[in-house]
What we know:
Elements: E1 2-9, E2 12-20, E3 27-34, E4 40-45, H1 54-58, H2 62-68, E5 70-75, H3 114-130, E6 138-143, H4 145-156, E7 163-167, H5 177-187, H6 199-204, E8 215-220, H7 226-230, H8 232-241, E9 246-251, H9 258-275
Parallel strand pairs: 4-5, 4-6, 6-7, 7-8, 8-9
Antiparallel strand pairs: 1-2, 2-3, 3-5
Amino acid sequence: MKLLSAHRSFGGVQQFREQASRETGTLMRHGLFLPPEPKALLVYLAGLTCTEETFAIKAGAQALAASLGLALLTPDTSPRGTEIPGQAERWDFGVGAGFYLDATEAPWAAHWRMESHLLQELIPAVQQELGLDRVGRTGLMGHSMGGHGALTLALRHPGRFASLSAIAPICAPTECPWGRRAFAGYLGSDETRWAAHDASRLMAAQQAAPFPAGIRIDQGLADPFLAEQLLPERFEAACAAVQQPLALVRHEGYDHGYYFIATVMEAHLRHHAERLR
Length: 277
């Protein structure tokens, strides 16, 4: 890990660091908030166009995280610094839009390996650094594209995370424009392969509730992406079918951005702290 900067914050330290990734073949940046006494690790996956800094600057999470003993790990949203033609032409595909999966299609397969980077490199390295075991002391959450990432990675890797939540997540990417564009580009045209990265389909395939202590989702009802892109009712139905406890909290008047995220952040930090004790 190369330390890029460090900032005192609420008795702890907000760091920004860089890691050479074998999986992506690039330098990958991440943020890490270290409370005075780290007791558990919460990984936050950000949404489209965001970086490793966005959450740290906008979410207002450090004060409560410091008091709860939650270290906050915030990865970047895609590899950067590659020379793939057209990688920055769209805001919802390519740079800043890794969708937290391993691409299988050229030219993306060479570098867009976010799932392996997170699960095999970054998260284990930080867990080891902080002395936190992998099973009981690590939670996962995310927003929008990162909410998709949190839900799918937690379901694809049973036992790796002890708590799970999301804010305005993309719940059924095989059925929405953002997801279909990303999956076609990263995974190819065979739609039967897409289901393995769709949270609603993954949940529906469970034999028992994977998170019996409950999953939390917060969704603003004034979110302009709610009806076409997010589809939380699909995930809600899948949870009901397998008796997975889900608190899907709907908020009148709130939109998709960080004002909403900051509003519900306390509830999410406490959700994870209670389950990671």
